[in-house]
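Record type: monomer structure entry
Structure origin: computed from sequence
Chain ID: A
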Amino acid sequence: MTRHLGMDVGGTKVALRVESGEGDAATPYETSFRWAVGADVREDMTALAACLDRVRQSSAAPITAAGIAMPATLDPSGTVLTWPNRPGWTGLDLRAELRRMLPGTVISCADDGDLAALAEARAIGCDDIVYLGVGTGIGGGVVLGGRLCPGPARGSCELGHLVVDRTGAVCDCGRRGCVQAAASGPAILRRAEGLRGSAVEFTELQEAWAAGIPWGVAAIDEGCAVLAAAVVGAGELFHQEVTVIGGGFAGGLPGFVDLVEQHARRLTRAGVPQPRIASARLGGLSSLDGAVLLARDASERAGRPTALQESKWL
């Protein structure tokens, strides 16, 4: 029996899933952990190694391949070029670290938004989608004709860094007015804090949203309006069949996607049909599912990185 590992690396949390080979009915092994607040990159690597050691020991079967969904920008060798959420990772040879932690395992890394888009396209059986994941940041991916656009060899489709307000808030990337600076989970929470006049936890925002409390509604409404602008702009370029909105933050707020659609409808240009907007079929697990798909694909293709570009839905 072979096993495939998917790992979704986030700014605050890492989720992992191990699935057995095709036709095996074994229950997937799942686990997760949170990065320690204020930890440096070596402490992060120690925590990751300890978790992967537990994963390896969960079964005697070897992990044949691992697919890693990453929000950071990596160079072709697997070295981190930039990751604003964890700046200490800059210069880290992530691929080498993972090979050390998972000896004998084929390691493949890809953008988390790209992998989420592929997983959602496969889940809904649609060849042309735009994906936006609302969480610690704004992940994005575009699938056209069943394949990633523009393709891994040319980089990922960073929809979260579309500039929608050149005088807006400063984004983690250093620019002003990115979608992420106004519509990510932390951005919406910051807006809620400003409107309320005190700190706001996500659970408090959920309660305010459900109860219709003005500061909560206004904070979320503005975030949805910004996302709608990004969705409509993407539609002018890609003419996608459906826009999928996922991520843990959006998934935790019932009606969030409906509100994005309402704002998008107001921006529709005469004579141009508005692509359907839908909630992620896989919820907050889109990137993790995509990471498992990447691992399976790497195993089947002996780890060739071009598989992402060549394959329909991997």
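Annotation 1: DSSP finds eleven helices and twelve strands in the chain.
Annotation 2: The mean pLDDT is 90.
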